[in-house]
Structure formats: C-alpha cells, structure tokens
Amino acid sequence: MNPSYYFKEFLRYLKTAKSAVFSSTVVIALSVLLLGIFLTISINSVKLLKLIRDKVEIDAYLNDGIQPGALSRLSADIKTIGGVKNVTYISKDEAAKIFAQDFGQDILEVFDYNPLPASLKINLYDEYKTIDRIEKIKGELVKYKEINDVVYAQKNLEILERNSQSLVFLNLSLFVIITFSSIFLVGNTIRLMIQSKKDTIEIMKLIGSTKETIRTPFIMEGFFQGFLGSILAVIILQIFLSYFYSTYTNNDFNFTIMDTKFLILLVIFGTLLGTLGSAISLRKYLRLY
C-alpha cells in the first residue's frame, strides 16, 4: 500500500474525530505530566534525604586545657576508628564565631567569658551514618579522658532511618500505580475513539481492506496523539518547575530540574503510550487478529 494513502487516511481520521483526538491527547498529556511531576518530587525527596544524611556528624567536646601534643595524638587515634572519614579541630574562638553565625549574636554579649568548649568534628563515611554504628563509635570516643562529651543528631537520624525505607517503598508503589493508571486511561480513551469509527472499519473490512490497511492509520493517529500530548506535558512541566525552582530554592537545597535526557524520555513514554494504546485497543476490541 502506498504510504501516501496511509497519510491521507490518517489526516481524514483526525478531521472526522476532532473531539475524540483532542480528548485522547489531553489524557496523554495529563498522564505524562503527572508522571513527570511525581518523578521530579521523588528524585528531589531522595536528594533531600541524602543532604540530611550528609550533614550527620559527631561532635566530641574536649576538656579545657588540652595540650597540642595530646590533641594531635587524640586526633590520630580517632582517625583509626572504623568509619571515621576525617577529624577537624574546632577551637573555642572558632566555636564562638560559629555561634555568632548561627544565632546572630556574639557569645561574649551573653556571657562575660566564652563558655563554649573546643571540640573535634568527626565526619563519617556514608555507610557508617546509622544509629547502631554511630553508637559503637561513640562508645569508643568516650573512653578517651580528653573528651568530655560526645553528641550527634540522634533524633534527626532516627527520623531519617524510619522514613527513608518507607519513602522508597512509597515512591516505587506510586510509580507503578501512576504508570499502569496512565496506560489504562489512555487505552480506554483511545478504545472509545476507535469504537466511534467502528462503522467505518466494518465497511473497510467488507470491501476487502487488509488488516494492515485498517490498522496503520489508527496507529499513526495514536503516535501523533502521544507525541503531541507528551510535548504539551513537557512544556507545562518545565514552566511549573522553573517557577518552583525560582520561588523555593535556597542555598541549603537546590531543587533539581530534570535535564534534557529526562524530558526526551517523557516524550518517548507519551508517544509509546499513544501508539501502543491504539494497537492494543484495535487488537482487543475490534478483533483484527
């Protein structure tokens, strides 16, 4: 069959069912847009959890009057503890500067002296940033007589550990639900559109048209609707994300906008959604096979 015939039939189908084509395109656009928003939220939520975990560290507060030699030996000993990535010394003066940055007030304006102790800020490897492993490291640190107290953000870490696995499961579940819901909605919408042309298809079968002749224009139509709907969804998604990025991003957390590869994948997904929706609907409801 001449390809120009398929193209003419494809254009004729579009003209004779404008409302159905519009409805299918909108459904595909909404499906792709919903999936894009979900994936954006999912990726950034995982990124936020990682940012929180990256900030988990141990503060070992030192007794006053520790000598430089003892401090060097202590730092070297702590570095040998399993899971310790690096150790940073924070002097009393540096602690006062950090206090002023965090609270906007000089510690000497509150007290007549600097009560903040010197400390060692201990950074850990990612796999050791769990409560069980940090507690073991803390048990090793309190053995040193030069250390007065050991603290870390235990409550934050408890929340992180409690919610991280739930978040992964929730993201995976929602992804599966959204994907299959999109396939069902698009397939059902396209099926209704095809059923509206059932008489035309029956006439084509009666005059001896082959399955390929009947099927090809519908698949082209599904491809067109999927491509157009996904392009529309990507444009709306970019406008929404650009606004969100400019409004809510701060220095601590940079909201990730999806790159070009991700947007291309969304377009491919939407196009396949429309194409496969047409193919499956034809096979299931019109019994061309």
Describe the structure using short key phrases:
289 residues; alpha+beta; Alpha-Beta Plaits; 4-stranded antiparallel β-sheet; 4 strands
Task: Report what the structure shows.
71% of the residues lie in helices and 9% in strands. It has a 4-stranded antiparallel β-sheet. The chain has 10 helices and 4 strands. The chain has 2 domains: 3-51 and 160-285, no CATH class; 57-152, 2-Layer Sandwich (Alpha-Beta Plaits), CATH 3.30.70.3040. The radius of gyration is 31 Å and the shape is elongated.
State the gist of this model.
By secondary structure, the protein is of the alpha+beta class. It has helices spanning 3-16, 18-54, 68-79, 92-103, 107-110, 131-141, 154-195, 198-206, 211-248, 260-285, and strands at 57-62, 84-90, 119-124, 147-152. The two termini are 19 Å apart.
Distance between the termini: 19 Å
| Helix count from the secondary structure assignment | 10
Most strands sheet? 4 strands, antiparallel
Class by alpha and beta content: alpha+beta
Query: How many domains make up the coordinates?
Result: 2
| Mean pLDDT reading | 79
Strand order of the largest sheet: 2-3-1-4
User: How would you sum up the global shape?
Assistant: elongated
Q: What is Rg?
A: 31 Å
Number of strands: 4
Helix content: over 70%
Strand coverage percent: 5-15%
What ranges have pLDDT less than 50 throughout 5 or more consecutive residues?
none
Compressed to H and E, one letter per element, the order equals: HHEHEHHEHEHHHH
